[in-house]
Design a protein that fits this description.
Blueprint (H helix, E strand, L loop, with lengths): L1 H31 L4 H27 L4 H35 L1 H17 L9 H15 L9 H8 L7 E2 L5 E2 L30 H15 L5 H11 L2 H6 L7 H12 L2 H14 L8 H20 L9 H10 L2 H14 L5 H18 L38 H4 L3 H10 L28 E2 L2 E2 L31 E7 L5 E8 L6 E4 H7 L4 E9 L4 E14 L7 E8 L11 H8 L13 E5 L11 E4 L2 E6 L2 E6 L12 E5 L6 H8 L16 H13 L1 E3 L2 E3 L15 H17 L1 H16 L3 E3 L2 H6 L9 E5 L8 E5 L24 H8 L4 E7 L6 E2 L2 H4 L3 E4 L9 E5 L9 H15 L5 H9 L1 E2 L2 E6 L2 H17 L4 E6 L5 H12 L4 E4 L2 E4 L4 E3 L22 H9 L9 H17 L9 H15 L5 E3 L12 E8 L3 E11 L5 E12 L7 H22 L6 E6 L2 H7 L8 H13 L5 E3 L8 H5 L9 H4 L20 H4 L28 H21 L12 H15 L1 H8 L9 E2 L5 E2 ...
Parallel strand pairs: 6-11, 7-10, 17-22, 32-35, 35-36, 39-40, 41-44, 44-45
Antiparallel strand pairs: 1-2, 3-4, 5-6, 5-9, 7-11, 8-9, 8-15, 9-10, 12-13, 13-14, 16-17, 18-24, 19-20, 21-26, 21-27, 23-24, 25-26, 28-29, 29-30, 30-31, 32-33, 33-34, 37-38, 41-42, 42-43, 46-47, 46-50, 47-48, 48-49
Helix pairs in contact: 1-2, 1-3, 2-3, 7-12, 11-12, 12-15, 22-23, 25-34, 27-28, 28-29, 31-32, 34-36, 40-41, 44-45, 44-46, 45-46, 51-52
Length: 1761
């Protein structure tokens, strides 16, 4: 069907190609014959239609192509067709252009005549069509601006010129503008059929980045065609928001507008700062963010181009900005960039970086582009003539969309995906995709809503296209006749509360665990325990899911016997089971069809081989069909003969084994573990001792061998006969071995060897029948060990296998752990020069067991002959894997050594102390001693039936051994494992052998499906075996990395982030280099003159802490040899500790390590020395432990128990080799001081860099603070009473005296005496004072000895008080005045004494100091007195020093040039003045001053009464003359305090709300300054003074009438407006001074200005004259006034900001100075610069707003301490 459709589509495309070819040839003939224009145009149209049809046919054909290679070929063919079409089209258009060129000259003439005709028609009245003309000009500009190189469409141009609107408007430059279009005489007119869009006017909204481009575009488009007056009109239309607001006050001055805009936006520094901030604020990239990388490239290029436009490209082309840009890239990008620089050999420059980023961006865009994007190369698409569009592309129906199509939904998921791909469907919305519609840009792109295992699908596709990833174990169906039947039976599954369900159960003997469908478990209400299972799919990919383990009761349909199945819940077990015709199958097998119960539908339960009894029963077979009668009923399985096609998925399901870290941490703790306190010599618990006695007493010697019965703790008769389980395991083992015949032969050979060596024996049928004791079978399996050349396959017996809830190992006692310390055995192996090592051959198999124990060790084997019944064997010796086997073997070995102790004491001791499992390790001084030791060991072992495979040594022991060593060297196998550590006996060095599989996760080329997770990393790190710590300084990096994984919060099976993964890859690669590093085995050289010294170092960092030990030995040559002994490390806990505490932890580790080394080694050390670079830790160790807090105390106690504090030394940090283990080293650095020790150990001890440590303040914080209550030590009262809790010297003395009296009473009460009663006596107060003086003088005694107070001649009197000697001994004054007590200024009592003296009268600094020195000589007393006076609340309250603050910046209202007069104004009152109303009547009138905040002009008005309405009348007169101001500023009313009462009443009577309402209706914003702050309305206040002075001089003592006064006010206002503002010129060239009248009148005085003026009736000339006056004023204002505003004339210093809760007094000019009101600041009002100048104060009378200049802070909120 598909092939036929493909063939049809190809035929249609070929037909369309033929049509295109014919049209092309026809068009070429027309051009060649130079046919008329219309014929060529028709031919071109036919060609375009033919090409569109070809594109459509090609699209239909390409949709059916599935092969990518074929698709690319066809796309190439289409590209050639497109090139042919474009060539023919261009030829035709060039031909048509020739026609249009001939018409260009007449069109020019037509336009010119039309323009001239319009010009002669005259100009209408000014303003009559101004708006229309402006709109015409803007339309014309939208066409003409921009140097458009494209020709204007001749048709549209002709239409516009011939239309009814022929009005032309001449501009000032003489350019004619046509209504709608401007004709450019230089433009080349062509015949192109495309209609060009009109260029848009540039816009500017205030972004400094766009200003330079906007300015250039605007000037290019406007200034060459329009006058400046018109240009500023266009400029206003192009500006928006703030820029438009800025030029509102500028009239027609085009240049002034640009100057102002340039000053705000044109500064290149602003542009540079803004662009720098853009790059700095860009969030740094993360790996994989390709889209944001493109954004960064665009930002960098756009920023550089902007700076280049303003000529500041160097602000970005520098190393600083280059560094910032590099920091915004992710680590991977920086690596690529660095490698590119290295490869090119160039320096990093901005130009080079931008080129690299451009190339990188293009490559990423290509890499992320959708496949087959070449389909979107055509700009046009023409639907096929007869092609109909349907909503649903699947069923060709428009009644529904495809995502609701029932036919499509009925398809299987694989079929749905296939159909969607064939129809090129968008996987997000299920609609047809196209060139502009893909899944990545689909507007309905959503995440899939399907969930599995509680997790949402993470992919972006439609739910109908979601493919389940549920677990499928097998396939049980027979949908086709040739498929194989799996063993499925219908049975009953029981749940809670009597629920039961008939379910399909699959009996899978190949599964090791049983499974249940989660839906079934939930329906039955089964309760399970949480667990996890790992799914290992084909190819090795693993997935771990969390689930539950259930106990599932099942029974057959006909039987009530119930079985309990332990099953794991998973979402889905297999495909659904199809219905099967059971009648013919039952007939073939000779069964009744009713006896076979097999349903259809989902499989609810899978029973694995872990329940082997469910797979047993009577069997019938016919051909390949088998029927078995299982406990759940008859089950049929098998299928037709011959090969069958397997299409199922294969999974391996197993329990997720917990991450086993015990062995790793056990190795890490060797040598530093904390052992429980066990007083007995054998270190066994009581239970272990009893078990050891049971085994020891049951030992019996049979010939040379030991026979030991197993220690049973349960009756072995309870063991079930588990032969079915053993049979299933045998079959499984056989299947595996048959896959690899070589391993199968090796496995069978080992079975035969066991039989030949009598380690096992075959049971006869008779013996099996006659034996009545307990019987149990142990399964066995093969363990592959390819690294073992002798035994690559090993037989492992499993005594822990469970059958019906019973396991053999559960029936035995474990026995004691008699193994020696592995750490100690290796240390003793390293002690001396000659090392020997042997491995006891088959140690467990040398111990026999009695017959009753042999029968519980039965096993099955048939020599891989699977067609016969297996033979039954029994083990006759100890079995490796049995729980008590290690204890039994060790007891037998120790008994052998005990028997031979008298004859061979050295050999017996080696067997007892230097053996571990079946390995014997020892070291001696000479070869002769080694030879004797090995001979004795052979004899001792032989007496117990044991034997050594062969002895290995670093020295020649026998000739045979020499030959063997030479043979091994020839084979390059000179390495042996000593208790897991690799030993090269030729070089006598320990080394590492990193396995290749450790690095498998780093090779992505091997398997990209394997994830690097926390679980896999942990297992890899735990596999690294280093019990001594040779590579501890390297391994600590892996430990720190693992801890970081916990801190990140990753789960066990979450994949690592890319950056973390890269770190681990590098770490594993470094680990491989450990193969080339070796550590010396022998610790002590022979014949040394002195005993060695053990040197242990400790150190800590924020990440880890550790310790390392070295042995220092003096040689015969007098030099010192240093060898590495051991090292241990720990990561710092996640709960952060201080560095001193971590250093203490490291010291504990060092003490444990040293204690273990001394205990395990037979070397006698002359001394043990500990080194640390922490002076705090050293001071702690050398102090009593009980004086510190529990954390420190417990660890110091352990250190002092493990070592002598005098053994601890302090060294500089750079000499501390333990720093390597606390921070980590590279593998290559291990061969330095880490291996050979620090250099100073090779020097004599006198030259060691040992330093003296003292306890620092940080360490003192760990001391335990204990306050004495009942006793006052006479030595120092400061230990009893905390002087910081007192603020009065008198109170401190009296409290001290009372406590001393109480102490004395308690002391006397012991002798039945009563103490003193009543008030304190003077001598008691004197003693209390002296006790504090002695406490304060403790530190002065040492300073006095150093001669610090020579000028004072100090001495100690008979009471132990230090007094000043001086030179006035003969003065007739008191003793205390002649010799005052010397006190330090930093002690608390010095401050209390100074405060006490100051509070008596609150004198000044000098007086306070003088009063103090009449009795006390306090060092730096003057400074202390000054501080006390400054903080004294009473003094500050009396001083009334008001607060000040840095003068604020001028508000924007004062800096608004180009604004009309009085646009921003302030007002104030002055007066009153007495006026005549009648002959004998007078009244008070008031002056009102209005001031312009920019021109400083004044306007004076007269207020006739005190009513608010009168003030509003004043405002109305002002508004009528000067216009409405935008802002009106005035005092709040209380600024007139101290003025006349009437004025205050009038101001207080004003209703601010009425004023605001009155002004709001006129769009006026009324602002009020803070009360009592006249300086905040300084403009009006300053001019009030000038006006009052002028009125005083004009009126004198006269009484005027109201209008006379009003006349005076106006004249005074004019005089004030004649005053100069700003700088007074002193140069004739500067012209006259600037005054407000220059703006108000256009001249400085009211005199008539001298002419001549140009006599014209043209109002434009008059407007220009007035405009020039305004421009002249503002230019001079900018020159003379603006600079004068820069200077701060007062309040130059920034002060502390007043804060909320400050205690203050409010300044009141009318109150008595000492009685100002006290209040508290409840609110502050900071200005734009963050400085507080106005506050709200709460007093007993109410809340008041005041400036800070009217308050005085007497006590700050933060206090003085």
């Amino acid at each position: 069907m598909a092939e036929e459709a493909l063939k049809t589509a190809k035929t249609d495309r070929r037909t369309a190609k033929g049509t295109l070819t014919r049209c092309g040839k026809s068009l070429a003939k027309l051009i060649e014959a130079k046919r008329p224009e219309q014929e060529v145009r028709d031919g071109l149209s036919k060609l375009q239609l033919a090409f569109d049809n070809l594109v459509a046919k090609h699209e239909n054909y390409s949709r059916l192509i599935e092969d990518d290679t074929e698709f690319e070929v066809q796309e190439g063919w289409m590209g050639e067709c497109q090139e042919d079409f474009m060539s023919m089209e261009m030829d035709a258009k060039i031909y048509l252009d020739s026609f249009f060129s001939k018409e260009k000259a007449p069109m020019k003439t037509n336009h010119t005549s039309t323009a001239s005709k319009t010009k002669n028609s005259g100009v209408g009245e000014p303003g009559s069509s101004g708006i229309l003309n402006m709109q015409i000009e803007e339309d014309a500009l939208s066409v003409s601006s921009g140097d458009n190189d494209h020709p204007i469409n001749p048709i549209s141009t002709h239409q516009s010129t011939s239309s009814g609107n022929d009005n032309f408007t001449p501009d000032h430059e003489g350019t004619s503008v046509v209504s709608g279009h401007e004709v450019n005489p230089n433009a080349t007119t062509g015949a192109c059929g495309f209609k060009m869009e009109k260029p848009k006017m540039p816009k500017f909204t205030g972004d400094v980045r766009d200003y330079a481009i906007f300015r250039a575009d605007f000037k290019h488009a406007i200034e060459s065609k329009y006058s400046k007056r018109d240009a500023i009109t266009f400029l206003r239309t192009c500006l928006q928001d703030k820029p438009l607001e800025l030029i509102k006050g500028i009239g027609s001055d085009y240049k002034a507008a640009w100057d102002y805009l340039d000053s705000i936006y044109g500064d290149p520094r602003f542009v540079s700062d803004t662009i720098t901030q853009d790059i700095v604020k860009f969030r740094a990239l993360q790996p994989g963010e390709d889209a944001r990388f493109c954004d960064l490239v665009h930002l960098v290029k756009r920023s550089f181009n902007t700076l280049k436009e303003v000529g500041s490209q160097n602000d970005m082309d520098n190393s600083h900005m280059l560094s910032i840009i590099e920091q915004k890239m992710c680590s991977d990008d920086r690596k690529v960039w660095s490698r590119d620089l290295e490869r090119q050999g160039e320096k990093a420059t901005l130009e080079r970086l931008m080129k690299w980023m451009d190339v990188e961006m293009k490559s990423r865009m290509r890499a992320t582009a959708p496949l087959r994007s070449s389909r979107s190369v055509y700009a046009l698409q023409v639907e096929a003539p007869n092609q109909k569009w349907y909503k649903c592309w699947y069923c060709k129906n428009s009644s529904h969309w495809p995502d609701t199509c029932p036919k499509f939904a009925a398809l299987g998921i694989d079929q749905r995906i296939k159909v969607a791909k064939e129809n090129h469907v968008c996987f997000s919305c299920m609609k047809a995709a196209g060139r502009e519609h893909r899944v990545d840009n689909c507007r309905r792109r959503r995440k899939c809503t399907k969930t599995e295992n509680g997790r949402e699908c993470m992919h972006f596709h439609h739910p109908l296209l979601h493919k389940s990833t549920a677990v499928k174990v097998g396939v049980a169906s027979l949908s086709e006749p040739h498929e194989t039947l799996l063993p499925v039976v219908t049975c009953k599954i029981y749940g809670q509360n009597g629920f039961q369900k008939q379910s399909n159960t699959l009996l899978d003997s190949g599964a090791q665990i049983s499974l249940i469908r989660e839906e079934t478990a939930a329906a039955l209400g089964l309760k399970g325990n949480d667990t996890a299972v790992t799914l290992t799919k084909v190819g090795g990919e693993e997935e771990t899911i969390k689930t539950k383990v259930y106990k599932v009761p099942v029974s057959s349909i006909d039987n009530t016997e119930m079985f309990s199945i332990k099953a794991i819940g998973i979402p889905r077990i297999s495909e659904e089971v199809s219905a099967v015709q059971l009648r013919p199958i039952a007939k073939l097998l000779g069964l009744e069809s009713e006896r076979i119960r097999r349903g259809n539908g989902p499989v609810d339960l899978l029973i694995g081989i872990d329940h082997a009894q469910m797979h047993t029963g009577q069997t019938r077979q016919t051909g390949q069909l088998v029927a078995r009668r299982t406990p759940l009923g008859w089950v049929v399985f098998g299928g037709p003969s011959g090969e069958t096609q397997v299409n199922g998925r294969v999974y391996h399901v197993r329990f997720a084994a917990p991450v086993e870290m015990s062995d790793f941490w056990k190795t890490e703790a060797m040598g530093v573990e904390v052992k429980p306190c066990v007083c007995e010599a054998d270190k066994l618990t009581q239970a272990e001792r009893e078990e050891a006695e049971i085994i020891s007493k049951s030992c019996e010697k049979v010939g040379k061998q030991w026979m030991i019965p197993y220690p049973w703790k349960k009756d072995p008769m309870l063991l079930p006969d588990n032969k079915p389980l053993a049979m299933k395991r045998l079959e499984s083992t056989e299947r595996r071995l048959k896959k690899d015949p070589e391993k199968g032969v090796a496995y069978d050979k080992q079975m035969e060897e066991m039989k030949e060596m009598q380690f096992s024996r075959k049971l006869s049928r008779k013996e099996m029948d006659n034996y009545k004791g307990p019987v149990h079978y142990i399964p066995h399996r093969a363990v592959i060990r390819p690294e073992k050349k002798s035994t690559p396959v090993r037989i492992v017996f499993n005594s822990s296998s469970v059958y019906q809830g019973h396991a053999l190992n559960d029936y035995w006692l474990k026995g004691p752990d008699l193994l020696n310390s592995l750490f100690g055995v290796i240390l003793r192996f390293r002690e001396k020069e000659v090392a020997v090592m042997g491995d006891i051959s088959k140690m467990y198999h040398r111990i026999r067991i009695p017959e009753e124990d042999q029968h519980v060790h039965r096993f099955l084997w048939r020599n891989l002959e699977t067609e016969r019944e297996p033979d039954v064997y029994v083990k006759t010796v100890l079995t490796f894997g049995d729980k008590p086997a290690p204890a039994m073997a060790q007891i037998a070995l120790r008994k052998t050594a005990e028997e031979n102790k008298k004859d061979y004491p050295e050999a017996a001791e080696v067997l007892t102390k230097n053996s571990y499992m079946d390995d014997i390790c020892g070291s001696v001084d000479t070869v002769a001693q080694a030879q004797k030791l090995t001979r004795d060991l052979d004899k001792v072992l032989d007496s117990g039936g044991f034997g050594v495979k062969g002895w290995t040594s670093n020295k020649l022991l026998t000739k045979t051994e020499n030959q063997e060593n030479e043979f091994k060297m020839f084979q390059e196998e000179v390495e042996e494992k000593v208790l897991g550590v690799i030993w090269n006996y030729v070089t006598d060095e320990f080394s590492f052998k990193v396995k290749v599989d450790l690095l498998c996760l780093t090779d992505y080329s091997v398997d990209r499906g394997v994830k690097m997770t926390k679980r896999t990393l942990l297992s890899q790190v735990a596999r690294f075996y280093d019990p001594i710590g040779f590579a501890a300084a390297f391994v600590i990096r892996a430990k720190i990395g693992l801890q970081e994984l916990w801190q990140i919060g990753l789960h066990w099976d979450d994949e690592l982030p890319y950056d973390v993964k890269d770190k681990w890859i590098q770490l594993f690669k470094e680990m491989k280099e450990l193969d080339r590093i070796g550590f010396k085995r022998c610790l002590v050289p022979p014949e040394t003159p002195e005993l060695p010294v053990l040197c242990v170092f400790s150190d800590a960092s924020q990440e880890a802490f550790g310790a390392c030990a070295y042995i220092r030995q003096k040689t015969k040559q007098g030099t010192y040899e240093v060898n590495f002994v051991a090292a241990k490390s720990r990561v710092a806990p996640l709960k952060q500790l201080t560095i001193p505490r971590l250093e203490l932890q490291a010291a504990v580790l060092a003490s444990r390590l040293a204690k273990t080394i001394v205990k395990e080694c037979t070397i006698q050390f002359a001394d043990v020395k500990f080194f640390t670079d922490s002076s705090i830790t050293l001071a702690w160790i050398q102090s009593p432990s009980r004086s510190f807090k529990p954390f420190v105390s417990a660890r110091i106690g352990e250190i002092q128990n493990n070592s002598d504090p005098s053994q601890w030394k302090h060294i500089p940090g750079e000499e501390n080799v333990a720093d390597d283990v606390s921070r980590g080293l590279h593998v290559k650095q291990l061969t330095g001081r880490w291996m050979n020790g620090p250099e100073f150990l090779k020097l004599p001890e006198e030259q060691w860099p040992v330093q003296t440590a003292t306890l620092q303040q940080e360490g003192d914080m760990e001391r335990r603070h204990v306050n004495a209550v009942t006793t006052v030590p006479p030595a120092d009262v400061g230990n009893v009473i905390d002087v910081k809790n007192f603020s009065s010297w008198r109170k401190l003395i009296r409290v001290t005296a009372w406590i001393r009296r109480l102490t004395e009473k308690i002391r006397l009460r012991r002798n039945t005496l009563s103490g003193r009663e009543g008030p304190l006596m003077p001598e008691e107060l004197k003693k209390a004072e002296m006790s504090w003086i002695k406490s304060a003088q403790k530190d002065l005694k040492s300073r006095m000895k150093n001669g610090d107070f020579k000028t004072l001649s100090p001495f100690i009197d008979d009471k132990g008080i230090i007094r000043v000697g001086g030179r006035i001994d003969k003065a007739i004054v008191s003793y205390e005045e002649k010799h005052p007590v010397l006190l330090p200024n930093e002690h608390r009592i010095s401050l209390l004494i100074t405060s006490h003296m100051h509070n008596h009268g609150h004198p000044g600094v000098a007086t306070t100091t003088a009063k103090i020195r009449r009795k006390y000589w306090i060092l730096k007393a003057n400074k202390l007195s000054k501080a006390v006076k400054f903080k004294c609340v009473s003094c500050r309250e009396m001083a009334h020093k008001a607060e000040t603050q840095l003068m604020a910046d001028l508000p924007a209202l004062r800096l608004a040039p180009q604004t009309p007069p009085f646009y921003y104004s302030s007002c104030d009152y002055f007066g009153p003045y007495i006026v005549k109303i009648g002959r004998n009547k007078t009244r008070k009138h008031y002056g009102v001053i209005f001031t312009c905040l920019n021109t400083r002009a004044v306007h004076l008005e007269l207020a006739v009464n005190l009513s608010p309405m009168e003030f509003i009348q004043v405002l109305r007169r002002f508004f009528s003359i000067r216009g409405y101001p935008a802002v009106l500023l005035s005092d709040n009313g209380s600024q007139m305090v101290g003025a006349e009462r009437e004025l205050r009443e009038m101001v207080e009577g004003l209703d601010s709300d009425k004023l605001r309402d009155f002004c709001a209706e006129r769009s006026i914003n009324w602002l009020f300054t803070a009360p009592a702050a006249p300086h905040q309305n300084g403009c009006a206040e300053a001019l009030v003074k000038s006006c009052k002075r002028a009125l005083k001089k004009a009126i004198g003592e006269q009484v005027l009438s109201p209008f006379e006064l009003y006349t005076c006010l106006l004249e005074v206002g004019n005089l004030v407006n004649q005053r100069p503002i700003g700088r007074v010129p002193n140069d004739p060239d500067d012209g006259k001074y600037l005054c407000p009248n220059d703006m108000l009148l256009g001249r400085a005085t009211p005199e008539v200005p001298q002419g001549p003026f140009q006599d014209t009736k043209n109002p434009r000339r008059r407007v220009e004259f007035v405009q020039k006056i305004v421009e002249s004023f503002w230019k001079r204002w900018s020159r003379d006034v603006l600079p004068a505003l820069v200077i701060r004339k007062a309040w130059h210093t920034e002060r502390r900001n007043v804060q909320v809760d400050d205690i203050v007094v409010m300044a009141d000019n009318n109150a008595i100075r000492g009685k100002w009101t006290i209040g508290r600041v409840i609110e502050v009002y900071p200005g734009t610069d963050g400085r507080v100048r106005n506050v709200k104060v709460k007093t007993p009378a109410g809340e008041y707003s005041r400036p800070v200049t009217k308050i005085a802070v007497i006590y700050p909120a933060e206090g003085y301490d």
